[in-house]
Specification:
It is built from 8 helices and 31 strands. It has helices at about 20-25, 70-75, 135-145, 175-180, 320-325, 420-430, 435-440, 485-490; strands at about 10-15, 35-40, 45, 50-60, 105-115, 120-130, 150-155, 195-200, 205-220, 225-240, 270-280, 285-295, 300-315, 340, 345-360, 365-375, 380-385, 395-400, 400, 440-445, 450, 455-465, 475-480, 495, 505, 510, 520, 525, 525-530, 535-540, 545-555.
Length: about 550
């Protein structure tokens, strides 16, 4: 790109004026969103042992003005191949009716004192809960209407850029200058391409159905045991699609079961991309937690909890636009993603604490606490990053891991290395990774990788001095040591994470030969291989011991 030989150029430009002053004075999206909520709840005592708590919440998100539906939207061409690998509301039937209606969330809780002495409590509930989305997603629907902004999303293998033009060269009109140099009239809404961001008919805020059941038991010797389970089912989650791609795909030679379509061609040449935000009922999560706690002689308290949980969804929705959420979602069929492990999948977590209190009488009182948290890492996906093997404007793709003797079909003799040498290096990398080697002859899966366990130990020391005889005024001195274990041993307390640049996608080392595109015999794509190293990173700041001193005066 810096050598002025880009493979892909993306950007937007204003039909009226692309100067910095004009764009700052005329916001791309200017809209209001009003949120109203009403909640009623009652507590009903059925008996001395049982009480129930019914409740009802009503939520309304009101948009005083809706996005503009341009003539371009109402006349969008239909895909004659509609429904081959994914489906959606036909875009010329989008009616701009979404949100602006009350969502009801009933719920019912209960608490049962089984023995009548607070020693055995059974509690739980079931209900619906409504959330919200970032309104930044909606902002794109207000300005990517086809009336105000044009868009370019051009790849050099599909249409070459004019020699001598430079997309990174400073220009008072931004990227509009580069687009004009490449032959597009930038001040005419009927010239060139535009991007459309749409919201599906009847779209509502996310909503889930959640149920929980817990048991608390305290023994005669003051041991406390808790067991709690929670299950959440998505009723209205979010789904992102890019729908200006002909649904008439081909498949690579290795894809015998036709799992990963390869697309080409646009449905409507007036548009670069068309994004749609809609609801889906797919997705669930659950967790089971057990806790043991005990206080000794009113001075020493200890507790340990273990949680096992799983979470699955179609998309994590952590990006700031419909475009980014779609482009960075790992799926074999990006417009019809399969239910898979979420970025927020917990799996195993252990939390322990120990606290000691001592009263020195006239010298005040001291508290020493130790908190330990251990979690089985965070999930990430293996795949191809900063490119797509599917002919789509995506930035990530799940990867097919070839059989050992099949890998050579991925490569050509190039850069002083034969195809056999490249295949050998690639196979060595795959064989050295437990997960990737288990996927030979198959595709990688979303969020099936996992970083090592993250274990952190924190120390808290506090001493309180009373400054008057009544004890109503005091000075508290505190020392907090975060990740204290790393101070003892530099290999302890290391914090691992998967970078979010490509939505926690770790490269398998393959870069597709897209410019110009190449294929080997048997319809195999051609790649270059570079060992990507570790699939996760270390948080060097979080892995260090940190100390904080505090002073508080209470009166």
């Amino acid at each position: 790109f810096t050598s002025n030989n880009p493979y892909r150029v993306r950007g937007s430009y204003n039909y009226a004026n692309n100067s910095r002053d004009y764009l700052l004075a005329h916001p791309s999206a200017d809209f209001n969103a009003n949120m109203y909520s009403l909640y009623v709840q009652d507590e009903i005592r059925i008996s001395d042992k049982l009480r129930i708590t019914p409740g009802l919440r009503a939520d309304l998100v009101h948009l005083p003005t809706m996005p503009t539906l341009s003539e371009k939207v109402s006349s969008i061409l239909d895909d004659p191949n509609f429904g081959n690998t994914y489906s959606y509301t036909p875009l010329n039937r989008i009616d701009n009716r979404f949100l602006n209606k009350v969502q009801l969330s009933p719920r019912l809780g209960f608490r049962y004192d089984a023995l009548g002495n607070q020693k055995l409590i059974v509690r739980g509930g079931v209900g619906m809960f409504t959330g919200r989305i970032p309104f930044a997603w909606l902002a794109y629907a207000y300005y990517n209407t086809g009336n105000s902004f044009g868009a370019i999303d051009q790849r050099a293998d599909q249409q070459a850029f004019l020699a001598g033009t430079d997309p990174v060269k400073p220009n008072p009109n931004g990227i509009a200058g580069f687009i004009a140099e490449n032959g597009t009239v930038v001040d005419n809404p009927n010239s060139g391409k535009t991007q459309i961001d749409l919201v599906d008919n009847g779209f509502t805020m996310p909503q889930v159905l959640r149920g929980s059941l817990g048991i608390d038991y305290e023994t005669e010797t003051d041991w406390r045991f808790t067991l709690e389970g929670m299950y959440t089912k998505s009723l209205k989650d979010v789904l992102f699609q890019q729908l200006n791609t002909k649904d008439n795909p081909l498949y690579y030679g290795y894809d015998k079961d036709k799992q990963q379509p390869v697309y080409s061609g646009t449905v409507d040449p007036r548009f670069s991309n068309i994004y749609l935000l809609s609801n889906t009922k797919e997705g669930y999560r659950y967790s089971l937690t057990g806790t043991i706690a005990k206080t000794f002689a009113k001075a020493l308290s200890m507790s340990t909890s273990y949680t096992y949980g799983q979470s699955k969804d179609l998309s994590n929705g952590v990006r700031n636009s419909m475009e980014s959420n779609w482009q960075l979602n790992q799926a074999l069929v990006p417009n019809n993603p399969a239910l898979s492990y979420s970025n927020f999948d917990i799996r195993h977590r252990i939390v322990s604490s120990i606290s000691y209190n001592h009263d020195w009488k006239k010298a005040g009182r001291t508290n020493i606490s130790l908190f330990i948290s251990a979690q089985s890492g965070s999930p990430f996906s293996y795949g191809i990053v900063n490119g797509s093997t599917q002919g789509l404007p995506q930035q990530v793709s799940l990867a097919y891991i070839p059989l050992g003797n099949e890998a050579v079909r991925y490569f050509k003799d190039a850069a002083g290395q034969t195809a056999d040498q490249q295949a050998l290096a690639f196979n060595q990398f795959i064989d050295g990774n437990e997960y990737l080697s288990s996927r030979r002859g198959m595709f990688t899966e979303r969020n099936k990788g996992r970083t090592p366990w993250n274990v952190q130990t924190d120390l808290h020391i506090a001493h309180e001095l009373f400054v008057n005889e009544k004890g109503s005024q005091s000075l508290s001195f505190t020392l907090d040591v975060m990740n204290v274990a790393n101070m003892i041993n530099k290999n302890w307390g290391i914090q691992y994470f998967s970078p979010n640049t490509f939505n926690s996608t770790s490269s398998v080392g393959l870069t597709p030969s897209l410019f110009p595109p190449q294929q080997n015999a048997g319809n195999y794509p051609v790649f270059s291989f570079s060992n990507p190293g570790q699939p996760y990173s270390i948080d060097y700041f979080g892995s260090r011991t940190q100390m904080q001193l505090g002073l508080r005066y209470s009166f």
